Amino acid sequence: MDKKNEMNDSINHFNHMAKQLKQMEEMRQEFISNVSHEIQSPLTSIVGFAQALQYNKLTIEERNHYLHIIETESRRLSKLSDNLLKLTSLESAHHPFERTDFRLDQQIRTIILACEPSWMEKELELDISLEKIRIFADQDLMSQVWPNLIHNSIKFTRHRGKITIRLQQIDDLASITISDNGIGISEADQFHIFERFYKADLARERSKRGSGLGLSIVKKIIEMHEGTISVKSELEKGTTFTILLPMYRYNKIV
Question: CA dist 49 to 39, 43, 65, 102, Å?
Fold first, then answer.
């Protein structure tokens, strides 16, 4: 009886391993397929418009327009490559992770100011309230979170819209909310927004395309800090991202 149970256990274990290997292979194939698709799209545009530039009868306006598209798609390809490297590094066991004590409000304020050309160009109203909060985290990794979220808000908020950024302490957590009154995200898209390569339908026009990796990187970094990130949104009314990060032994500056 014992031998029979051992045999059954071995078979079950083997089947479980086989199932896991199959799932990993499916994930690998899906990842390769997504990467190939994301690379092929800008490359097709670059080749197509480069060929069009060889036509001698183009006007100056047409030529500049084609050159602008080539530059935009080249930058998108570069960013895709950069984000793939970041995500691969973050998911490896060897990525540097060094916590230090720093002022989170100062970091966020610096990044908001760095984004000034983008929100000034769209004449956006910014409502900012940042409590003086210290946090024990990897400063370099956290500095990759805020530009991604803020640029998303700028990108999907219409001209003269509004973005609200709040930082406050709630018990032993630092709570950061980034809200806008932009185009919003559908309920269906909200369930997938942090998945690799996922792009909501509203982001498919050329000027708003991304790699579909930015929010995956943000989520990974937040999770590495034992924090959480969530999204609430309504079409045509706006979007709010909420991040909660443990502060550990550091308290708010009085």
Answer: 16, 10, 9, 47
**Which residues, at least 6 apart from 13, have a Cβ–Cβ distance to it below 8 Å?**
none
Handedness of CA 192, 109, 82, 98 (dihedral sign): negative
Place of tokens 């080249």: 74
Query: What count of residues does the chain have?
Result: 254
> Is residue 212 within 8 Å of residue 197, measured between CB atoms?
yes
Q: How far apart are CA 178 and CA 155, in angstroms?
A: 13
* 3-class DSSP state of 138: coil
Mean pLDDT of all residues in 64-88: 80
Kindly state the DSSP code that residue 123 receives in the 8-state scheme. Answer: T
The C-alpha R_g of the chain, in whole angstroms, comes to 23
Q: Give the pTM.
A: 0.69
The DSSP symbol for 21 reads H
| Greater model confidence, 159 or 57 | 159
Rounded CA-CA distance 193/199 in Å is: 7
Which is higher by pLDDT, 134 or 83?
A: 134
Q: What SS3 class is residue 56?
A: coil
- Cα 172 versus chain centre, distance: 26
End-to-end CA distance of the chain: 69
Neighbouring residues of 225: CB distance < 8 A, sequence distance ≥ 6: 137, 138, 141, 142, 245, 246
Six token digits for residue 223:
């999770």
Find, among 239, 194, 242, 188, the residue nearest to 217 by Cα.
194
